[in-house]
Amino acid sequence: MDIRNSNGFNGNGFGSNGHNGHHSAVRHSNGAPSVAAPAQDARSPRRFYDADFVVTEAYRASLPDLQNGPASLIQGSAVAIQQVGIHNFRLPLRYAARDGQPLTLETSVTGTVSLEAHKKGINMSRVMRTFYEYKDEIFDLDLLEAILQDYRRSLGSLEAYLILRFNYPMLNESLRSGLLGYQYYQVALEARMNRYGAVRKLIHFDFVYASTCPCSYELSQHAILERGIAAVPHSQRSVARVSVELNDFLWIEDLRDLCLDALKTETQVMVKREDEQAFAELNAAYLKFVEDAVRLLHEKLDPDPRIKDFKIVASHQESLHSHDAVSVLVKGIPGGFTPEVDPSVFATLIHR
Fold first, then answer.
1. Are residues 235 and 295 in contact, defined by beta-carbon separation less than 8 angstroms?
2. Which residue has the higher pLDDT, 284 or 342?
3. In what order do the strands lie in the sheet with 325-330?
4. Are 214 and 288 in contact (CB under 8 A)?
5. What is this structure's pTM?
6. What band does 19 get if pLDDT is binned at 50, 70 and 90?
7. Are 128 and 112 in contact (CB under 8 A)?
8. What is the DSSP letter of 2?
9. Which residues contact 234 (CB under 8 A, 6 or more apart)?
10. Strand, coil or helix: what is 295?
11. pLDDT value of residue 32
């Protein structure tokens, strides 16, 4: 065979003999050209994946670990960081349901820990590995506390936080036709551990309902009765985010029932004509401003002995205005929930 090597390059990327300088042109005895392996500079690493390479303990020990390096590697101010970790790490987890049949649900995990001023960083993969160690368990707030203890110890941090977010399905019956349909509820289970090891366990639950404006209803009735003019009061999809800290075990279904008992006008899944009429009647029977909504929820949550503390954030996404009506109400116990809300929270209350 005839081998022509090209070493020099001209301005257009080809060698002086006209061949691309990245490869050696090879001509076989049968006249068919082929391309040999690229010429390799001895100083450059091979661009090659070795599928047969086996990692030994000695090799693993030799790998650099900048994230857990000395304080001298810190960039910026050498100060403590309140939270550092991962967000939206997803995997399927199993949850206990009130009917006794566990549900496997796609779950988004947020896991963070505090970082002391003298430490460069954390090994974030340990958060994920810890969850895979528990992936076959039935998840609840008590298990979340155990996981929190594990990865707090493995990461050597003083404080730790975990949040699991998922959509929880419940089979709901229509108002009059008897049809069944799945309503999905946005739920988050949260565990917070302070530097002294004390843990707070919380459930965050979004309840979606319709709210018909009492003022608009009265004005509509006035137009109908006084002038014989048809008028329709404005109503809108609304959301109440109920966060609870517990004294005792509480099913997610129980929390939904408390919200439904308080507000009555939950949005529907399966609807026939008789259901749509029933929903109109239901909304007329239970008119509510956003102020009414949080007070009605307070009335149901406050006396429940299973609930230690709570916070309610409600948003009525009005059809009259181009803005929303919002309200925040807390139980008000010492050291409990506070009414402060980051402005971005209200944007997360828009459910589609």
1. no
2. 284
3. 138-139, 81-95, 103-115, 160-173, 180-193, 199-212, 235-246, 307-316, 325-330
4. yes
5. 0.82
6. very low
7. no
8. E
9. 212, 213, 216, 318, 319, 320
10. helix
11. 55
